[in-house]
Design goal:
The protein has seven helices and no strands. With 154 residues, it is an all-alpha fold. The chain folds into two domains: 117 residues, 23S rRNA-intervening sequence (de novo design (two linked rop proteins)); 34 residues, no CATH class. Helix 1 packs antiparallel against helix 2. The protein is elongated, with a radius of gyration of 20 Å. It starts with 7 loop residues before the first helix and ends with a helix. 27% of the residues are buried.
Length: 154
């Protein structure tokens, strides 16, 4: 995996945000600074937080925090979709499609939050090993980079 764009959850979140952007172009003008701005902002924030979290994934707590933010923005977007549907700005079928998409994003984020270690880079994964294991096998630098023994193996 080379970057956040390779994550299926990012790809889906980005696609859904673009679909919401296109759908919201037809919202009434009086919603421009209310519902339209809010739904666009929250939908884009899902993808943005996933991207930012992926970049910070070497720091487990930051990674988890950004994924949790993305999950929260997913729910916020669903609430705005509810409003758009109830105000009859979205046809029912489109509302169902977008809502189902965000439910899938939520499930994917839930899986990542349950097992964030699967997404950590190799150097950060070493930091999660119990101290007894890694002190006995390698000498680590204070910043928890790759073990010095790793460099000797190359």
């Amino acid at each position: 995996m080379r970057g956040h764009r390779d994550l299926k959850v990012f790809q889906l979140a980005y696609k859904l945000a673009m679909q919401i952007f296109n759908e919201s172009k037809a919202f009434p003008k009086e919603e421009r600074y209310a519902l339209t701005d809010q739904i666009r902002r929250s939908s884009r924030s899902v993808a943005a937080n996933i991207g930012e979290g992926f970049r910070k994934r070497r720091y487990l707590n930051m990674f988890v925090s950004k994924l949790a933010d993305a999950d929260g923005e997913t729910t916020e977007t669903q609430v705005w979709l509810d409003f758009a549907s109830d105000c009859e700005y979205l046809v029912r079928e489109r509302y169902k499609q977008l809502t189902a998409g965000y439910e899938e994003v939520g499930r994917m984020l839930g899986g990542m939050l349950a097992h964030p270690e699967k997404f950590l880079p190799v150097a950060a994964a070493f930091c999660l090993l119990p101290a007894a294991l890694w002190f006995s096998a390698f000498w680590f630098s204070a910043s928890c980079q790759l073990p010095t023994a790793y460099w000797d193996m190359r």
